[in-house]
Amino acid sequence: MQLPQRILSLLLSACLLLCLCPGIKAFAVPWASNHNPQPAEQEHKPSTVFPQLTWLRDTAIEKVFGLPPKATQKKGCHKSSLVSGLSTSQLPATLLTKYGGDVVLRFNLTTPAEETALAEAADTLFLDVWEFTGNWADIRLRKDDVPSLLGLLPKSLQNAYSPLMPDLAKSIYESYPSMAQTEPAFPPTSPGGRAFTPALKTSDGVENMFFRDYQPLSVMLPWMRLMASMFTTHVRMINIGTSYEGRDIPALRVGVTPALPQNNPEPRKTIIISGGFHAREWISVSTVTYVAWSLITSYGKSPAMTKLLEEFDFVFIPTVNPDGYVYTWENDRLWRKNRQQTSLRFCRGLDLDRGFGYEWDGNSPPSNPCSESYSGEAPFQAVESRRLAEWAKNETQNNGIRFVGFLDMHSYSQQVLYPYSYSCNAEPPSLENLEELGMGLSKAIRISSGQLYGVASACEGAVPPVAGKGRASRMETGAGSAIDWFYHEVGVRYSYQIKLRDTGSYGFLLPKENIIPTGEETFMAVKYFGDFLLGNKGIEADEVGKMETLREKHSAEGLVGDEEELDEEFRELRWDLKRRR
C-alpha cells in the first residue's frame, strides 16, 4: 500500500474511532441491565484527551513505518472476552426464557411430497422456517416440539434430519459484539463432519475497523455521515423515508454527475443495493456498507470503478427495516419482521419482502399475524415497503432517474435468485438475460473467493423439479416480493436477490470473521454487474489481471479448481437452468 493510502486509512480509522467508541455504549443487549456473567474490573476514565492522542500517535507510527503493534490494547474500545467454556446455566435469564430450549434442525428433502408435508407441519405448529434451498430446509423449534413435528411428517422424513445448532441460546449470546468470544464455542458440523461454513480467511490490506464487527444503527448512521462528509465529490447521504416507529431509512448515493449542463439530458442510470429487509440478517447490512465503502474508496484509483461511477449512480440502503434492526440489538436477535402493529396485539410485525404490490396475493400469503412471513391485509400495508416504493416512483417520475439494477442482499444459503418469486408458472420476458448475468455474478464470486453460489428462479422451492412436471413451489409464499415489484412495476431489467453466506452452520448468526470475506466476494459480483451493464458482458481488461491473480491464489490454497473444472461447473449449472425451464 502506498503512503498516501496508509495515511487516508489512518485518518478514517481515527474518525471511525470517534464514531465507534460512543456507539459501543449506545446500544444495550437485552440482558445488559440485569446480567453480568463476569464482572469487569472498574476502568479508570482519563480526565483529558492526551491518552487518546498518545494512542493515535503510536498507531500512526506503526501504520506508516510498518512497526509491529504493541501487545497492550486501548481500554474503552476493546471488549473483554468471556470464558470459552460458558455453560448454558450461566446465560442470561431473559435469553434462556425465549430460546433456552430451542434447536435448529436441517431436514433433507428429496420429493415435492416431503416438502409439502414439512411446510404444512411447520405451518400447523407455527415453526420458524429459517431457510430452504435445493435439497434441504432448516427449521427452528423447541426441543419439546420435535416429537410433535415428527409425528406430522411421513416416515421418510422422520429420520432425515440432523441438528445444526444444538444450543441456540448460546449461539445467540455469542453473536452480540459485546458478548462475543474469541472463537465460537462450537462450529456446528454435519453428521459426516463437514462444516457448512466456508473456510474463513483474513483480508489483505483492509484496515477499516468499522468492518471488524457487526455495527448497531447508532454506529452505522455516524459512519454514513462520515462517508458523505469525507468524499463530497461523489457521495451524498439521503433519506428514503420514515419507518413505522419514526426512524429515517438512510442511504448513500454514490456517483459522479456530469459537471457541465446538458441539453435534453438522459435519465441518470441508477443501481439500488439494499439490505436488512429482514432484521436478523445482519450480514446483509454489513455487506451493503462494505460494498459501498469499497466503491467509494476506489473512485479515482481504479479506472474501471471510476468509469462505473461516471456512468451510474449507486444507491446503498444498508437496512430498509431500521426498526426491526434496532430491535434485534436491544430485544430479540432473531426478530425478522418490522415492528408495525397488526390486528393481534401480541403479534407485531409484517414481512417487508412480502408486502409489495405486484402479485401480492398470488400464492395466498399467510393470514396469521403471528407468522414470520405475514404480509398484512393489503399490498403496501408494511410502512417501510411503501416508503421504498414511493421513493423509487418519485425518483423515476420527477428526478430524472432510471433504475437499471436492483440487488437485494439477504441471508443465508449462498444463492443468486432472479424473478419471478410469486409463481413458477410465469416466466419473465428477459429470462435468458437474467440467467446469463446471474451465472456471471456467481462465477465472479467463485473466482474471487472459491465459494459457490447457486443460480435459480426465486420461485423455486427446496426440491428440484420432477421431469415433465414443471418446477416445484416454495415452502413459503414468494408473493409481493421486492425483486418482482422492481422488475415488473419499475422496469428494472436486472433484479436479483442475493442470499449471502453461509450454507447452514451458523445461519443468521454468522461470526464476524465472515464480514470482510463476504463483503469482498459481493464487491467482485457488483463490479461484474456494473461491467455487464456497460455492455462488456464480462470483466474489463484492466480487471482481468486482478481476477486471474485471485484465481491463482485461491487455486494454490485449494479453494478453486483449474479452468476446465470451473467452466465445467458452470456448464452443468447452465444445463440445469435450461432443464428446469
Automatic annotation (TrEMBL):
Residue ranges constituting the Peptidase M14 domain according to the UniProt record: 213-533
Metal-binding keyword on record: yes
Recorded GO MF terms: metallocarboxypeptidase activity; zinc ion binding
InterPro entries recorded: CARBOXYPEPT_ZN_1, Peptidase_M14
Presence of the UniProt keyword Phosphoprotein in the record: no
Signal peptide residues on this chain, from the entry's feature table: 1-26
Keywords for the protein's UniProt record, in alphabetical order: Carboxypeptidase, Cell wall biogenesis/degradation, Disulfide bond, Hydrolase, Metal-binding, Protease, Secreted, Signal, Vacuole, Zinc
GO terms, biological process: cell wall organization; proteolysis
SUPFAM superfamilies: Zn-dependent exopeptidases
Main subcellular localisation: secreted
Organism superkingdom: Eukaryota
Cellular localisation: Secreted; Vacuole
One annotated Gene Ontology cellular component of this protein: extracellular region
CC cofactor: Zn(2+)
UniProt family annotation: Belongs to the peptidase M14 family.
Function of the molecule: Inactive carboxypeptidase that may play a role in cell wall organization and biogenesis.
Name of the protein in its database record: Inactive metallocarboxypeptidase ECM14
